[in-house]
Amino acid sequence: MNILEIDQLSLSFGGVKALEDVSLRVPKDTITTIIGPNGAGKTSLFNCISGFYKPQQGRITYQGKPLDGLRPPKRAGLGLARTFQNIALFRGMTVLDNIKLGAHVHMKTGLLGSLVYFGRARREEMAVREEVERRIIDFLEIDHIRRQPVANLPYGLQKRVELARALAMKPEVLMLDEPVAGMNREEKEDMARFILDIREEWGITILMVEHDMGMVMDISDHIAVLNFGKVIAEGDPGTVQKNPDVIKAYLGNSDIESLRRKLNPNREAA
Ligand SMILES: Nc1ncnc2c1ncn2[C@@H]1O[C@H](COP(=O)(O)OP(=O)(O)OP(=O)(O)O)[C@@H](O)[C@H]1O
Fold first, then answer.
1. In whole angstroms, what is the distance from residue 205 CA to residue 188 CA?
2. Which ipTM score applies to this complex?
3. Ligand 1 center from residue 113 Cα (angstroms)
4. Number of folded domains that form the chain
5. pLDDT value at position 252?
6. Same structural domain for residues 103 and 69?
């Protein structure tokens, strides 16, 4: 079953076609990754799915229902959580407070809501939230830094806090925009393990944009390749890395040997 379906999506900025007739399936319980050279349209596609960009054409269906017209917070509330290419945390706030903000998408808001929603039900909800936050903090091994301001943390830990906040949104689909960009090898390995565990232990479908081919080929079940706003290949890692169109798309900014290594991490290890 596909938890997310994108059909014939097109998005232009003036004369620039960021996405052209893009169709993509995200099967439930998979790690699906979108790859492609710089400027291929990956972030634009993410922005259309999370509702920040409005495509001129096409349809996005989530759990069998169209997302048309829904604003980003509404989509997040339905279970589409997201992290960003550049860390988007409140740097002056503590780790715990940043994580608590993630749960906010599910809070009842507004005066009327607050008036009718109090007492036992609210206390019960708070207890559930605290339990979820505790579980996330334990899982991501960030208990020791939970009272620290985010700004003081090394980059790899900040990325982990961003992941924690997205998990606090209780997502069905977790969208990760370049989760290991700028990380050292150890941080990347930790993040790859967390992503695999989120799929396995938490039953959350992962949709990821990532440039690190080693990690992409290692952990993805399904890969879609974008180039100049179009999907040029789709399939499992083995199929995609042999596809001549994919090799050609990456040739623009690589020599053939480093390209082969990029697309085939096992060969690099050998
Ligand atoms: N807000 C915007 N206004 C104008 N043009 C945009 C905007 N967002 C994206 N574009 C253009 O759309 C195209 C696709 O950009 P996008 O950022 O989606 O690519 P990408 O694959 O995510 O690239 P990268 O790997 O470098 O992050 C590019 O030509 C980009 O300049």
1. 20
2. 0.95
3. 39
4. 2
5. 57
6. no
Q: Is the CB of 37 under 6 A from ligand 1?
A: no
Number of residues in the chain: 270
**Element spanning 94, H or E:** none
Which residue among 112, 141, 168 closes a domain?
Answer: 168
| Pair (75, 179) in one structural domain | yes
In a domain, 84, yes or no: no
Residues 142 and 188 in one domain: no
Residue 111, Cβ density class (10 Å: 0-12 exposed, 13-18 middle, ≥19 buried): exposed
For residue 263, give its domain range: 2-79+171-269
Q: Mutation test of ligand 1: which of 17, 24, 35, 43 has the most ligand atoms closer than 8 Å to its C-beta?
A: 43
8 Å CB contact between 6 and 49: yes
Do 223 and 235 contact (CB within 8 A), yes or no?
A: yes
Q: Are residues 96 and 56 in the same domain?
A: no
Low-confidence ranges of the chain (pLDDT < 50): 109-111, 253, 268-270
Please give the distance, rounded to the nearest whole angstrom, from the Cα atom of residue 124 to the centre of ligand 1: 44
User: What is the atom index within ligand 1 of the atom nearest the CA of 37?
Assistant: 25
pLDDT of residue 270: 36
Q: Does 38 sit in the ligand 1 pocket, CB within 6 Å?
A: yes
